Amino acid sequence: MSESTAPAPLPAARKAGCPFDPPEDLARLRRDHPISPMAYPDGHIGWLVTSHALVRAVLADPRFSHRADLTHSPLSGARTGAPRPAPPGIFTSMDPPEHTRYRRLLTGQFTVRRMRRLTGRIHEITAEHLDAMERQGPPVDLMEAFALPIPSLVICELLGVPTTERAGFQSDMSKLMSLEVSTDEKIAAFGTLQAFMLDLVLAKRAEPADDLLSGLVTGTDLTDEELTNIGGVLMGAGFETTANMLSLGAYALLGHPEQLAALRADTGLTDKAVEELLRYLSIIPGTVRAALEDVELGGQLVRAGQSVMVSIPAANRDPEHFADPDTLDLHRPTAGHVAFGHGIHQCLGQQLARVEMQVGIPALFARFPTLRLAVPPDEVPLRTDMMIYGVHRLPVTWDKG
Ligand code: HEM
């Protein structure tokens, strides 16, 4: 066993002027202690894993559980109180066989036909929002005008949420994601969302349509409580992530004009570009597992019951796996990136998220060839205070044609 460092909190400080780089200390830890003791916000002493190889090893290992009643939250403000079991339907925080059962029912709903129809809607929704931006004229906040409404509408489309109801919904979801909102406010927002979802489930039971929630209502024996919670999971997982990838992705391309020029010159580069943006930006700080038994990992003994945080940004910038990892290079091979996680909990919505980015990013730059920041780069407000990294706002401008 190797000598370990004293437990420290998850590194969070990013270098000034480097909005696209992960917290600096992650690189030092990855080099010197790819598994190191970590002090969790609730006082638990667990571990932080930072190398690509170890991150994937943990996520693929059934001795590490994702159960909500076993894991300690690595992020302050993310979850308060003692760990407790996941409510019915919150499969993200369950292990097999419960996780497997829900996951199968859900993957069965992401049919080729439904994905094809959604892709068509993504093109339409993107074009509608670019039209609205053009009508409004510069400057606009790209987050508000483009990055947030597109995934929000797409997820509403997927679940069959009436689009008229999405505004209140978006605001409640943002509260749940915030690290600064009080527990009381979060409980209130959660209550509103649950009530909304339950109403939606009951509406689908009464009158099923051709959407995912209706498919689950008619094709499975899931209870209203399970369906309500599953709807909440998809909403929560699906829109802020993609919204931040769209906006931070656009910002990163504006900050790397030669890469943007390459993308503009070759639309065939789009799919690779999206994967590289996912790797380079790694907007999710990581995920956590708990050891079900004593496990030796990277020369350290992880004791049964200890939590292990795996850092997605650290893994995706590991020079042992990606050459010159701190450079945004749209042509590079990105195989093995863990922006969508790895193993049995790997992102269920990744194909949908990919299509949204593959459609949205090139369409944005094609519509506004002179798009640029409307403020100096150091005035772009970064989401260093949120669970999902990105920008709060992205003021952009362009020359009117
Ligand atoms: C660019 C956008 C996205 C990113 C970066 C992202 C990232 C991730 C990551 C890293 C995980 C693994 C979490 C873990 O292991 O603890 C995950 C899981 C998940 N994602 Fe995404 N996601 C995105 C978009 C979406 C969308 C659009 C949806 C829904 C339509 C979605 C639904 C889910 C669900 C349900 C899970 C849990 C799967 C499970 O536990 O089996 N995600 N996502």
UniProtKB/TrEMBL annotation:
Region (Disordered) location: 1-20, 70-97
Gene3D superfamilies per the UniProt record, alphabetical: Cytochrome P450 (1.10.630.10)
SUPFAM superfamilies: Cytochrome P450
GO molecular function, one term: oxidoreductase activity, acting on paired donors, with incorporation or reduction of molecular oxygen
Domain of life: Bacteria
Keyword line: Heme, Iron, Metal-binding, Monooxygenase, Oxidoreductase
CDD domains the record matches: CYP105-like
Recorded family membership: Belongs to the cytochrome P450 family.
Protein name: Cytochrome P450
Taxonomic placement: Bacteria, Bacillati, Actinomycetota, Actinomycetes, Streptosporangiales
